[in-house]
Amino acid sequence: MKQIALRAAEIARQLKERTEVRPKIGVVLGSGWGGAVDALAERSVISYESLEGMPQCSVVGHAGNFVFGKADGVDVVAVQGRFHLYEGHTTETAVLPVRILSELGVETLILTNAAGGINTKYRPGDLMLLSDHINMTGMNPLVGVRPSSAYPIFVDMTDIYDPTLRNIVEKRCKESGICCHEGVYMQVLGPSYETPAEIRAFRTMGADAVGMSTVIEAISARYLKMRLVGISCISNMASGITGEKLTHTDVLREMDKLQRKICELFKSIYKDIAVLA
Ligand code: HPA
Known about the structure:
There is one protein chain. The protein has helices at about 5-20, 35-40, 90-95, 95-105, 165-175, 195-205, 215-225, 250-255, 260-275, and strands at about 25-30, 40-45, 65-70, 75-80, 110-115, 125-135, 180-185, 210, 225-235. It is an alpha/beta fold. The protein is built from nine helices and nine strands. The chain has one domain (about 1-275): Rossmann fold (3-Layer(aba) Sandwich), CATH 3.40.50. A five-stranded mixed beta barrel has the order 5-8-7-6-9. Helix 1 (about 5-20) crosses helix 4 and helix 5 (about 165-175) packs across helix 9 (about 260-275). Bound molecules: hypoxanthine.
């Protein structure tokens, strides 16, 4: 298998041949975050299938496309389709889309996901801005990466989620009437959902929400010196909180309800970020 940096560069080269758009803003879409793509005009879609060396997506709700588009004249690229560790992908593959975005010139990255609410003040349909994270996967995407003076592997993780970007999203949520908390996200390996005992333990550890993505990508994005913001949509209350059983279909159904609001929110966020850049 080729080194991850080389794989990403080769796929980015194919993308650059097929689009003139050179976005500085990228967004990785979690389950049910399609509204962030609906916010884009003049869209061009490049499927994973059509790119040599790109793995394929297998999870329902993850289409497998790069979508290039504009929000109020601002270039944006959206990644529709993650590679999860629970599918058996390596950390290298899990961070491949982030690496590709970095190769394309993306400097600001928005990571989105669906998550189970651990904090009992949260409700399904609320958003949570990531203030920090806990990596419970036991894995790290920087293991085995060759250190260099430009990209040291002992990366500082303080304020990994940019405070200025967090303020922007918080303000825009308030204006749009979206309930948005700030909290700590925990990534677990999955694919099984957690037990009620695990959720109690995770709450004691300081987690407000739990999911199966994002942290591994955030570590890689930080290493690549990208400016980051992470947003969870609380699609369900975590195991044992309401006594209801968890299903992926229920997670997607809850996310579906929010699309129009997410679309409006992202239109304003893209514009604000472009002004910062
Ligand atoms: N647990 C883990 N991952 C999730 C959940 C959950 O409750 N909801 C959405 N993704």
